[in-house]
């Protein structure tokens, strides 16, 4: 069945409710809304984008989640081409230099072959915000869903205020452990749902990540184009946000590897900040005590899926449709998350009945 166009069923407020305003949820929502479906997006944070995250720290602008993305498939490529024409994204570079450790040595790319690495023109949130602008209904930010259940053949989503959204179908893009908590709170567990499907979702694991943003008095010492992949040690990635073109003042983003982040996740933030600054010291021009103007530490509990599924989606229920998608489905990258959202939209449109 195709979901009814333009109007929801008589006892449903929406055709589709989407949990999460990251790139997966927004690509699904905009695709479905463009076909006339009544779509609502519920997001627990104040802003949109999920881990395509940009923050202002003092006078600096810092990307502190995903740092860049690539394009290999046609569907996501069409979206990126439209966003580029709108001035929302552009190509950052072809390849990044790498370093053996955070202290070096640095190995420059062998050549400029390959495909473009993209950035948002005002930060990584530029693309999600572009998608939000295409939605006829504003995203409901600061709305934390606490339970997802089935009532009279419809999906009922209950938020922390005890208010309900009812829809003919639901798309859940939250990190899978959080999604399973929502289903459990609503009673959607085996044997009510398929046990094998539940076990498939429950097996997905994530690595955490610290993302430290620094505002500097002087430009960093990172080589062009301002992104450095680190092969080993506690630091995994460094970005010079000024070289990247999103910050008017010098700033550095330092992202920690999963094992370091897990080992120190509950440590005092000031201690973690100090450790990461010490590790990144070779790229700071001078004594960090004098050069670092301001700092902000972000803890991502579900940063990188360790074992993403090859499938772009997993349906917990067919009637009514409740489906999970996001960066844990199809590969674990920005493009995989966006493609997952597009795949869910197509899947809903093809449902019989």
Characterise the protein shown here.
The protein has 353 residues and is of the alpha+beta class. The chain has 2 domains: 145 residues, 3-Layer(bba) Sandwich (FAD/NAD(P)-binding domain); 138 residues, Polyamine Oxidase, Chain A, domain 2, CATH 3.90.660. Helices cover 26% and strands 29% of the residues. It has 10 helices and 19 strands. Strands 1, 2, 10, 11, 12, 18 and 19 form a 7-stranded mixed sheet that branches. Strands 8-7-14-15-16-13-17 form a 7-stranded mixed sheet. Strands 5-9-6 form a 3-stranded antiparallel sheet. β11 and β12 form a beta hairpin. The longest helix is centred in the last third of the chain and has 17 residues. The protein starts with 13 loop residues before the first strand and ends with a helix.
Task: Name the descriptors.
7-stranded mixed sheet; 2 domains; alpha+beta; Polyamine Oxidase, Chain A, domain 2; 19 strands; 353 residues; FAD/NAD(P)-binding domain; disordered N terminus; single chain; 29% strand
